[in-house]
Amino acid sequence: MVGxxxxxxxxxxxxxxxxxxxxxxxxNKKNIWSSMLDSVxxxxxxxxKNMIVLGGTPDSQREFLDTLSSDPSDxxxxxxxxxxxxxxxxxxxxxxxxxxxxLDADHEDILARVSIYLLSDPSPSFxxxxxxxxxxxxxxxxxxxxxxxxxxxWTWVRQLREWIxxxxxxxxxxxxSTKIVMEEVMTEWKDKxxxxxxxxxxxxxxxxxxxxxxxxxxxxDEGLGVPLCVVCQGANKxxxxxxxxxxxxxxxDFILQFMRTILLKHGASLIYTTPFLANxxxxxxxxTLGIHSLLRRQSxxxxxxxxxxxxxxxxxxxxxxxxxxxxxxxxxxxxxxxxIEIQESSRPLVNGARQGEDAxxxxxxxxxxxxxxxxxxxIYEQTIKxxxxxxxxPGSSVNSNRNKIEIETEDMQKFLGQQLTILxxxxxxxxxxxxxxxxxxxxEMSPHLxxxxxxxxxIGPVQSTWAVFKSMLTTC
Length: 476
Prior knowledge:
By secondary structure, the chain is an alpha/beta fold. The protein has 18 helices and nine strands. It is elongated and about 160 Å long.
């Protein structure tokens, strides 16, 4: 022990002797190690992405996140590996939150971490919760997703209107620095549509310069400053609408044309999803956020043929492609009506209230605004009607039953009660007829007598003497 201690002390003394390295070199060595560690740490830092999910219920939001986290490309992998690490989801009250780690194709490396914020109610009271999520640093890495459901497609346009109005109000109230970044983001997306994407091999002239393709009519007229994706969940209910409510291809084509027309103005993408079935939702979301696998290139191909697997990526659609679905759709009228409708109630929000709105008006109860026939919501709901309200309208039961393929059976006791009432009425009518037959009837074949009491008409071949005499007088 003493030897060890002496060697330690000797080593300590020798470290400060003339043969030791200068202290300045030790400091440089430490700085080199620090810089190397910092570079490695920054190199392994995960890219951070943000996704704001609007609409739906807590259950449908969880279903969306479950579909997004699953990887149907390799069914051989266990379910827990295909989903990755599942983070807790808090979405029961106000603004919810969770996150997802995006795994590479080999499910070993993490490509990015997506912070997910969830909001179910488009009330202006929740606007202050959304404003801090949009900053100059976060806007280029943010995607907004609006959830709709096939359980009530007649409310889609109304829901979209409320969410777009809320988003416009929030974005108008942002700082100028954030608005400048939003303009840059929208310009970048528009350039991709024009063919000016530097990563694209297309869109170059013979001289090597990029080709600037002008935007078509109705494209990017109402950009929000952040990419938008609309997800229509529960596409398996399409068959149910067809069987139970008598919907035909005309209704489904009208919905698709209407949705594509209004989303084209925002440069948004559209996708129909079905629970537990493979779809392109993950590829669409990740490509929009700029998350790309290093091992496998994800393919994102449009689909407007299969009515339950529709996929319309951003910058793909146009008025010409929408028109060919079905003739007679007023695409110009729908586009103009939508641009006017989303302008309403778009004043900046300050602490959840609109500028220029007093406390009394803010606290007063709100009532739905009646839409005239030119409103985009009215145009949509005149064709896509709620089957329950439509069947309750007077005079519509006959038409609704005529269009139905299947009719719900009536309750047995209720049916028998109605039949008993009908049988009682028939029984009463039969008794009246029976009583009428029992009553004596006046003799219909009694001879007609004249004033003198003689028969003025003969009965059979026998004539009275007076009749013969009278006929003789007339002949003479």
